[in-house]
Amino acid sequence: MRKKVTKAIFPVAGLGTRFLPATKSVPKEIMTLVDRPLVQYAIDEARAAGITEFIFVTSRGKNALEDYFDHAPMLEQELQKKGKDDLLATLKSTYMDSGAIAYIRQHRALGLGHAVWCARRLISSDEPFAVILPDDVIAAEKPCLQQMVEAHAETGGNMVAAMEVPAEKTSSYGVLDVAEDMGSVVSVKGMVEKPKPEDAPSNLAVIGRYILTPSILRNLDRMKKGAGDEFQLTDAIADDIRAGKPVYGYRFDGQRFDCGSKAGFLQATVAFALARDDLRDDLSAYLQEMVQLDKAAQ
Ligand code: UTP
Fold it and tell me: What is the chain's percent helix, strand, coil content, to nearest 5?
């Protein structure tokens, strides 16, 4: 019987330079889409997929992130006194069971592969684990990681979330070399980090959800720096392919927002606000007005 995926690593130790100066003091993952920080979307998705242990790889300046998952007794008392049960219920989703969350420091931002490797002692040698990048936010009827966990129960091996991107954008992603296309699942015979369009083996790009086998951590033990002079997770997965181990891409159902970029973050803000009953009417009237003004100005 395959072991269930119950642990997820959340690498959040990056510098977030694209959001400076905000990220000088606010961790990127605490920035909010409407009224919930990015990390809350990631945690909700992980919980829906059956994750019970949450491992954050953090860095200096990320205290706000750790505080976010703490209980807030004074705030709770105030809300209780005022009978604000709905807000109390909202707070509940931010709480973690004691011992369910662990924080590991990545002392230098040496790359995503290095961040995942920092958590190696918390993963047993026989259990698959998930990796979630909170700045990739995915709006989906069935949460993306849940879709992947269900597919992984059939395939085993390593699995990465994948989506088609325009050919000129391949240099922003890890890109899959597809061996066999089976629809939602593709088997992979190679992976390249940030290839130029002319060198890309396909336009099927990896985004921030992974289910990995512990062999990836062993590959990272002897990792050399790759693209961008960083230790790349893609290279460690490509090592497994070379060793003849199965790697799959999973074309998820849903819309992915790159909230690590300003344009993606703004698009996600609008999309999530329009999905809310309490905001939709006002916001869509405002957006229509803005579009008309813009047209008139041209
Ligand atoms: P990004 O490539 O988006 O880098 O990392 P970044 O530092 O967060 O942001 P920019 O590019 O400077 O604006 C993707 C994910 O990998 C994590 C980040 O925190 C983010 O969740 N990461 C990256 C680490 O945890 N450690 C690293 O050394 C690099």
Answer: 40, 25, 35
3-state secondary structure of 57: strand
Residue ID of nearest Cα to ligand 1 atom 9? 16
| CA–centroid distance, residue 22 to ligand 1 (Å) | 15
Ligand 1 site-directed mutation target among 31, 133, 206, 220, most atoms within 8 Å of CB: 133
What pLDDT score does 294 carry? 80
CA dist., res. 23 & res. 28, Å (int)? 6
Q: What is the phi/psi pair of residue 35, to 5°?
A: -135, 15
16-51 pLDDT tens trace: 999 999 999 899 999 999 999 999 999 999 999 999
The share of the chain scoring above pLDDT 90, in percent, equals: 81
Question: CA nearest 208: which of 149, 133, 152?
Answer: 133
Phi, psi of 223 (to 5 degrees): -75, 145
Ligand 1 center–CA 211 separation, angstroms: 19
The closest residue, in CA terms, to atom 10 on ligand 1 is: 16
Residue 229 has pLDDT above 80, yes or no: no
Give the distance (Å) from ligand 1 centre to CA of residue 276.
29
